[in-house]
Amino acid sequence: MQRRPVTPDSAKNRKVAILSALLVASMVGLAYASVPLYRIFCQVTGFGGTTQRAEAAPEKTAERHMTIRFDANTAPSLPWIFEPVQRSLDVKVGAENFAYYRATNTSDHTITGSAVFNVAPDTAGAYFNKIECFCFTEQTLKPGQSVEMPVSFFIDPAIMDDHGMDKVLTITLSYTFYPVDKPDSVSSSGKTSTETNLN
Fold first, then answer.
1. Per-residue H/E/C for 161-176
2. Model-level pTM greater than 0.90?
3. Which of 67, 96, 139, 151 pairs as cysteine with 133 (C-beta 3.0–4.6 A)?
């Protein structure tokens, strides 16, 4: 049985097929990587109101004061009452502050939730730093259980050097809780929350 001779056209077609397969594989890989890359981009730049994370507040504070408002939302599929304990705080730029949110499971079964967050205006995300937050981990509530969940934060004094932020006097910190289908095996709610039973 004779082999067909390799013609220039067949070699060209094979090369195109290999390049196409590599392109498809690259696109699939990029699709999987795009979410974490976008998340990293948002965390670094504050894009879309994404807040920053810090180990500690700076040693020096500024004389500027700002009002922080607190907003709470839940997904329609999550039977929790979720609300800020305080509606707003007057804070000093650079100083560490503490705020609390309260969540109550109104259902008859244990539910794990996870909170997503942002700040408004979006441009404030680059200067809003969280040190500790209930949103860093999943929260599990038993039926009728209520918890108070802390968040510690500060406004980066670098905001003083951004003249585009001079007229921003109020920042709104907003959270939305969603149910988690497959919760982590270890819940952190006992570590970060003050628990009360409604039953």
1. HCHHHCCCCEEEEEEE
2. no
3. 151
